[in-house]
């Protein structure tokens, strides 16, 4: 069984070759069709024409057809070499005479030895069915979950004792089970997934391996059944939940922290969030559902939430599910979490991630929970006025689009826009898609150089997106009880370690546009308070200077020079005082382009210059900052060797695609390899700054609260009387977050709203 043509020499009346890649079987006739010679002449054929894949040189100038003719004439290489004067073609005759020994050697290299003693019991090769245990282990390693189910190889569900607390006696049994326990695992059951809007349905607590209690805190779906009073349950629960000496494990503890705090309980002693631990071990995986993680690491099955409440439009609330079902479901989950915590923490230790987990990610979880729960005040009236104004601007933009197009059409229809741009106006067509020719932002930006319409389409689309995503959406996100927006901060989403946010996504609010500034003006402080913004200055470039050790870059930051003007002077070969705003802008693109592994092609497109000019800029940059070039080369070499890159705090990002034969895939991985150590290190430093700031605010009993984290910026809501103290605190904690070879200055501003504080 092979796809190697060398193996065809073994074909005989008793042996065939099966090529599974081509789904073809080769007998003697098929070999003759393939090579033009019988199987026993295949080695002669390879000796003459060679085989580059096996480093068999053959005779230069002789290909398959020439070799076939020579073998038809002589039969073997030796017979040919015995009478070379009879070779019909003068050119081939000269080649054979010049490379006679190479022909003999090539034949010898092609021969498969069949006289090697082999101790083989053919009967032992007989297929008797799969090795179920080995096959299951393989399927689990590669996450072939559907195949496991298909072959019914999955373990039977673990025997978990999950006791539903329905009476005072059962509650007393739970109290006894808690006595003296060093650790518990918890699983909170919520009416809906959103922590700030959820009702607390119940809590499962694992007090020992595969032993759990489920405590209903709302009248369950079978509400006629008896249950203890919620106050009695909490009287038993609260002391252990707030005891820092009892270690707590959970999956998505941030949500539990928010829900418990909303119910007046300050969860203390959190030890392992299995969601965060699994993320650190494999940040590139698509999801971190507990059922998937338990299956992967424990080989135990858990019911998914959709199996209990359904999914999509047909999903019901957990509050409607019978208590017995919830007891089994949540009890099995928290027992799995208890076991999983030990397994994952051992693996974190083994891979050297303990400090990152224990000192950064786990302390960050309650910080994020506090930020989400506190939320930020919104000026809804301003957003409503903005919505009306934007609607009017969009109407004016539409009229201008119709005037430029010469007719009315549906501006939101890509198909109709294609007709206008490429048929009516005859503009150059971009890349082809299934629906015709692309009208995406890159194409429109290119076309805008030659016609006004594409630029107006881009302006219209920008307004429409801003209106739907933020201006109209933000008021809908205001919590009916708090009157605030409670952004969700995602700790386990990005592969670089950066935080992301959703509902709303704060990171995507435009920075430089007037509309973006006005949206920031809607994030306000209450009367008597102010917004304080603390923003790291060029932290990623400073991290690059530290990691690369480039003397020129270190000197630029140490001297307090404007790094973009400095780069402009170096790249364009002018005195610093000759650098104009356009040169500085281009240098800024180059500086940040280096961070993202930008190619000459990408830089040319970004700066609207030729690719040759872009390459000259890049070459000029690396001549000045040779240490950066050496560092980036070392990062890429390490990524190819190890399959991953690391941040300063040892956060890893695995990049198997960096050895892909597909150039596009490989180049993308190379850009990620360059960017991740820099962006990831900056993200780690900001997380530490958040932890330190949060701790100091509490230690000094200040009323101020962190309310937002966006890119390199921390935003606080501060009483006017505390502004100076909080400003000093932020400066000290953020600038002192780590000892790098360059300073980490922070720009701090304040105002009645986020835009004012941000320097608007």
Summary keywords:
alpha+beta, DNA polymerase, domain 1, Taq DNA Polymerase, Chain T, domain 4, single chain, 32 helices, Nucleotidyltransferase, domain 5, 6-stranded mixed β-sheet, 21 strands, 12% strand, 760 residues
What is the strand content?
5-15%
CATH superfamily of the domain at 161-372: Ribonuclease H-like superfamily/Ribonuclease H
Average of pLDDT: 91
Percent helix, as a range, is 40-55%
Structural class: alpha+beta
CATH class categorisation of the domain at 161-372: Alpha Beta
Instruction: Report how far the terminal alpha carbons are from each other.
Output: 71 Å
Biggest β-sheet description: 6 strands, mixed
- What is the tally of beta strands? 21
Widest sheet: strand ordering: 3-6-5-4-7-8
Taking all Cα atoms into account, the compactness measure Rg is: 34 Å
Can I get a quick summary?
The protein is α+β, with helices and mostly antiparallel strands and 760 residues long.
Can you describe what's shown?
The protein is an alpha+beta fold and 760 residues long. Helices cover 51% and strands 12% of the residues. The chain contains 32 helices and 21 strands. Strands 3-6-5-4-7-8 form a 6-stranded mixed sheet, with helices on both faces. It has a 4-stranded antiparallel sheet with strand order 19-20-16-21. Strands 12-9-15 form a 3-stranded antiparallel sheet. A hairpin with a 2-residue loop joins strand 5 (200-208) and strand 6. Helix 2 crosses helix 3 and helix 28 packs across helix 29. The N and C termini lie far apart (71 Å). The relative contact order is 0.06. The mean pLDDT is 91.
């Amino acid at each position: 069984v092979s796809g190697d043509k060398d193996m065809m020499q073994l074909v005989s009346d008793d042996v065939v070759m099966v090529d599974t890649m081509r789904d073809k079987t080769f007998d003697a006739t098929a070999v003759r069709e393939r090579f033009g010679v019988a199987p026993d002449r295949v080695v002669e054929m390879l000796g003459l024409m060679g085989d580059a894949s096996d480093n068999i040189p053959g005779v230069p100038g002789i290909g398959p057809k020439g070799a076939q003719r020579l073998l038809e004439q002589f039969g073997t290489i030796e017979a040919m070499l015995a009478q070379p004067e009879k070779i019909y073609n003068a050119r081939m005759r000269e080649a054979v005479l010049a490379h006679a020994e190479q022909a003999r050697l090539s034949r010898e290299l092609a021969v498969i030895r069949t006289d090697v003693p082999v101790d083989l019991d053919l009967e032992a090769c007989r297929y008797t069915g799969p090795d179920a245990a080995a096959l299951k282990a393989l399927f689990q390693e590669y996450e072939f979950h559907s195949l496991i189910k298909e072959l019914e190889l999955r373990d039977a569900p673990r025997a978990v004792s999950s006791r539903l607390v329905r009476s005072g006696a059962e509650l007393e049994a739970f109290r006894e089970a808690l006595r003296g326990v060093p650790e518990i695992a918890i699983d909170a059951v919520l009416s809906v997934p959103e922590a700030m809007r959820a009702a607390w349905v119940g809590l499962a607590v694992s007090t020992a391996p595969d032993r759990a209690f489920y405590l209903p805190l709302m009248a369950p779906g079978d509400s006629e059944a008896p249950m203890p009073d919620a106050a009695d349950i909490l009287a038993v629960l609260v002391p252990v939940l707030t005891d820092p000496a009892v270690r707590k494990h959970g999956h998505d503890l941030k949500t539990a922290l928010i829900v418990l705090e909303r119910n007046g309980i300050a969860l203390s002693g959190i030890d392992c969030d299995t969601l965060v631990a699994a993320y650190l071990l494999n940040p590139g995986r698509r999801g971190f559902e507990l059922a998937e993680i338990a299956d992967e690491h424990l080989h135990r099955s858990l019911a998914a939430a959709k199996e209990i409440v359904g999914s999509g439009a047909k999903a019901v609330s957990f509050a409607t599910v019978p208590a017995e079902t919830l007891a089994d479901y949540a009890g099995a989950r928290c027992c799995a979490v208890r076991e999983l915590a030990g397994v994952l923490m051992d693996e974190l230790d083994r891979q050297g991630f303990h400090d990152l987990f224990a000192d950064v990610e786990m302390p960050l979880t309650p910080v994020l929970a506090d930020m989400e729960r506190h939320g930020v005040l919104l000026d809804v009236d301003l957003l409503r006025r903005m919505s009306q104004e934007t609607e009017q601007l969009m109407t004016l933009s539409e009229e201008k689009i119709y005037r430029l197009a010469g007719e009315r059409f549906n501006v939101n229809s890509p198909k109709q826009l294609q007709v206008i741009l490429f048929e009516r106006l005859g503009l150059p067509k971009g890349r082809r898609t299934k629906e015709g020719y692309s009208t995406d932002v890159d194409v429109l930006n290119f076309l805008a150089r030659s016609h006004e319409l594409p630029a107006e389409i881009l302006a219209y689309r920008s307004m429409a997106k801003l209106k739907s995503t933020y201006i109209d959406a933000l008021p809908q996100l205001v919590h009916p009880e708090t009157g605030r927006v409670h952004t969700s901060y995602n700790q386990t989403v990005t592969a670089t370690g950066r935080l992301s946010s959703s509902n709303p996504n704060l990171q995507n609010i435009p920075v430089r546009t007037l509309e973006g500034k006005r949206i920031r003006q809607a994030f306000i402080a209450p009367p008597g308070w102010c917004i304080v913004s603390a923003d790291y200055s060029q932290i990623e470039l400073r991290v690059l200077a530290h990691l690369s050790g480039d003397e020129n870059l270190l000197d630029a930051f140490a001297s307090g020079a404007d790094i973009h003007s400095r780069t402009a002077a170096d790249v364009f070969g002018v005195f610093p005082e000759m650098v104009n705003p356009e040169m500085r802008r281009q240098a800024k693109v180059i500086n940040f382009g280096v961070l993202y592994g930008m190619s000459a092609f990408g830089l040319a497109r970004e700066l609207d210059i030729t690719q040759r000019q872009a390459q000259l800029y890049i070459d000029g940059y690396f001549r000045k900052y040779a240490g950066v070039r050496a560092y980036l080369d070392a990062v890429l070499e390490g990524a190819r060797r190890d399959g991953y890159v690391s941040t300063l705090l040892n956060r890893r990002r695995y990049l198997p695609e960096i050895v892909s034969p597909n150039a596009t895939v490989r180049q993308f991985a190379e850009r990620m390899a360059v960017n991740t150590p820099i962006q990831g290190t900056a993200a780690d430093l900001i997380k530490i700054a958040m932890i330190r700031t949060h701790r100091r605010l509490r230690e000094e009993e200040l009323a101020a609260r962190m309310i937002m984290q966006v890119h390199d910026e921390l935003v606080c809501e501060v009483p006017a009387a505390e502004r100076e103290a909080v400003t000093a605190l932020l400066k000290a904690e953020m600038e002192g977050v780590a000892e790098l070879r360059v300073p980490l200055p922070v720009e701090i501003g304040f105002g009645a709203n986020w835009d004012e504080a941000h320097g608007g």
